[in-house]
Write a structure and sequence with these properties.
The structure is a homodimer. Chain A is α/β, with parallel strands linked by helices. Chain A is 47% helix and 21% strand. In chain A, helix 1 (52-70) packs across helix 2 (86-105). The mean pLDDT of chain A is 87. Chains A and B meet through helix 1 and helix 2 of A and helix 1 and helix 2 of B. Chains A, B: It comes from Acidothermus cellulolyticus (strain ATCC 43068 / DSM 8971 / 11B).
């Protein structure tokens, strides 16, 4: 049925952000449910021995460059519900706040996905391991040789998750059949 | 002894920030150990039903206005070590990140104090209650009629704590007697 063919207008660009102070993963993909193309990938680093404010400012600079360069339709950020280490939660929250802030300043909508939503979207299993997520990201993007650390493949998985789920949620919101 | 007289050059202006998304307390004081003068106090509100990114952007606007207007020598922020509610920790961390970011962008140093350090500085007791902190803030600032909510008096207490402790830490760092 024609209604099931992907429409060119439905192609979206998503920038996934795996927030972190020491390593912040960035992954940009284009596509629609079932097809994702790699646009760009990066890991922003800030030195652990620098002042926290300077680290956040450096992170802001990097995120602004990526937002302006990639011009995504939407930014997808990992939603952290609970972690054992309060220090890690704080760093993740602080880095995530900067991503949110720069996206809001540019009028780019931000969506959130939990780690299990992301894992389920790319592997079919909400408790998949890091290696399996990285393997499936490379397969889905048809980039088997992609050299990228886990923070980067996690950000790409977030972006792919939004391509898949975002469209499904939009259909549900519009009252369409699934 | 002359060495114990406060030196005009030691007068510092501190802006205390009690970070929060729904209510962010701001308190600015001038002084030196033993004397604190109220400069300004405010609570920044952001609507709980707004997008998180827009809330952070509104908070940034308010903090920038206060930083530019008050021109503090240093910003003191509450250091959160642990809270039971992860959602509250995240909001505090996100709001604190914005305060850090805007201070770093303007080259204003940021210092951290734990709630118990703040309580001990203004009441002599690290486990003092909110009412006791608010009472002592009004007494120390000689502003018994100050109408300000707890978020604002907490921010003032943070600023006073930095006036007291900051000088002591600077003396210790310089190798002087306590």
């Amino acid at each position: 049925m024609a209604a099931n063919l992907p429409n060119m207008r439905s192609i979206r660009r998503v920038m996934g952000v795996d927030p972190g102070l020491t390593r912040c993963g960035i992954g940009v993909v284009d596509g629609y449910p079932g097809l994702a193309r790699l646009v760009g990938v990066d890991v922003l680093h800030t030195p652990a021995d620098a002042e926290l404010g300077d680290r956040l400012a450096a992170l802001e600079d990097g995120l602004v460059q990526w937002l302006d360069r990639a011009a995504p339709d939407v930014v997808a950020v990992e939603r952290v519900f609970s972690q054992h280490n309060v220090r890690t939660v704080m760093g993740t929250a602080q880095a995530g706040a900067v991503a949110l802030l720069v996206a809001a300043r540019r009028g780019v909508p931000v969506v959130w996905h939990t780690p299990s939503e992301v894992k389920a979207a790319v592997t079919g299993q909400g408790r998949a391991g890091k290696d399996q997520v990285a393997f499936m990201v490379r397969r889905l993007l048809r980039a088997p040789g992609l050299a990228a650390p886990a923070d980067a493949t996690d950000a790409l998985a977030l972006a792919i998750c939004q391509l898949w789920r975002g469209a499904a949620m939009a259909r549900l919101a519009a009252g369409g059949a699934r």
